[in-house]
Recover the amino acids of this structure.
């Protein structure tokens, strides 16, 4: 299986992100959406999970995959191409930058924060932008 984590990388908010200050994603109709689950997992545990762990854990939660099924389902999950965190609404819509450290572990930074600006200027990091929401 190919490693799809980012290392020493900062995902900046997309060029067409509609907010100037980061927003916390909200549930819709009482249900936790993918952005809510991603936000909670990363914000509550900065630098604890890699991109792969985040993507699979949310898939597992939303599909009621048991502990016993996880290894087999994880292999199946990653055997197909999966969208990376650059496609997450956190960077496209909600104004959150994502830093992946040397171990691939992820933390969030609000676009208006000093820390975000420091990450954005850090030349030791690879810089990519979150995907645009619309075409241009």
């Amino acid at each position: 299986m190919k490693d799809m984590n980012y290392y020493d990388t900062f995902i900046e908010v997309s060029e067409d992100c509609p907010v100037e200050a980061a927003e916390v994603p909200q549930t819709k109709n009482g249900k936790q959406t993918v952005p809510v689950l991603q936000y909670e997992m990363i914000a509550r545990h900065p630098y604890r999970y890699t991109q792969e762990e985040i993507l699979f854990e949310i898939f597992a939660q939303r599909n009621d995959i048991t502990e016993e099924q996880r290894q087999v389902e994880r292999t199946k999950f990653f055997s197909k191409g999966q969208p990376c965190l650059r496609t997450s609404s956190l960077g496209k819509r909600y104004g959150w930058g994502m830093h992946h450290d040397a171990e691939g572990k992820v933390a969030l930074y609000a676009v208006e924060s000093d820390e975000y600006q420091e990450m954005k200027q850090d030349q030791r990091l690879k810089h990519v932008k979150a995907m645009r929401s619309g075409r241009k």
The two ends are 34 Å apart (CA to CA).
